[in-house]
Amino acid sequence: SQQGEEDPQALSIQEGENATMNCSYKTSINNLQWYRQNSGRGLVHLILIRSNEREKHSGRLRVTLDTSKKSSSLLITASRAADTASYFCATDRGGADGLTFGKGTHLIIQP
Amino acid sequence: SAVISQKPSRDICQRGTSLTIQCQVDSQVTMMFWYRQQPGQSLTLIATANQGSEATYESGFVIDKFPISRPNLTFSTLTVSNMSPEDSSIYLCSVDGSGGSYEQYFGPGTRLTVT
């Protein structure tokens, strides 16, 4: 079953602007991850944040995690046309479990 | 990172038939996962496949409909049985990252259309 809810479901911005996507989840987690999917193809792992971390950076990506609110945000700075994709948050419970994915945000970067 | 391939990449099948999807990894992995992505939707975990044991299915998925094999540490198959148009989806396999990392690496997916 889907645990995460992402908002917005769709986001269209101009190239160079920042894009912020949010994710909420329902149960306790071990880690929260963000993935990108281009045009219904395989997923690419972007960044992982552990439950005891509050913020993490990787290149143009910034992820925050608020476990008290069961929410996370993904910020993409200085967006590029190549960032056009669907973005999903995913949580795991630890151990040898699969991931529970949010509904995703479809991001369109206008050139 | 692991490199994962899937066969077929896409297929169009008639209702009532079955399709077996193959997933090959370029390194030995303990856990493999199968997901379904219905049109315009997110991914849902179908089952976890551990080599040498029966697959563990998530709520809403049953072995009779989605039998899984895991004959060795680099290969798994998922069969979609007695297909109906509702089974039209992208099916993806994935593996855990190495060294206890929880990130997962995904195959390119198999796009299935049932007519």
Word description of this protein:
The complex is a heterodimer of chains A (111) and B (115). Chain A has no helices and 11 strands. Chain A is an all-beta fold and 111 residues long. In chain A, the strands form 2 sheets. In chain A, strands 2, 4, 5, 9, 10 and 11 form a 6-stranded mixed beta sheet that branches. In chain A, strands 1-3-8-7-6 form a 5-stranded antiparallel beta sheet, with no helix packed on it. With 115 residues, chain B is an all-beta fold. Chain B has strands at residues 4-7, 10-13, 19-25, 31-37, 43-50, 56-57, 68-72, 75-80, 89-96, 104-106, 110-114. In chain B, strand 4 (31-37) and strand 5 (43-50) form a beta hairpin. Chain B is globular and about 40 Å long.
Residue runs with pLDDT of under 50 for 5 or more positions of chain B = none
Morphology call of chain B = globular
Largest interface: A-B, 26 and 31 residues
Task: Note the beta-strand portion of chain A.
Answer: over 45%
Q: What is the CA-based Rg of chain B, rounded?
A: 13 Å
Mean pLDDT over the full residue set of chain B: 93
Helix content of chain B: under 10%
- SS elements, strand count of chain B: 11
Biggest sheet descriptor of chain B: 7 strands, mixed
- Mean model confidence by pLDDT of chain A: 90
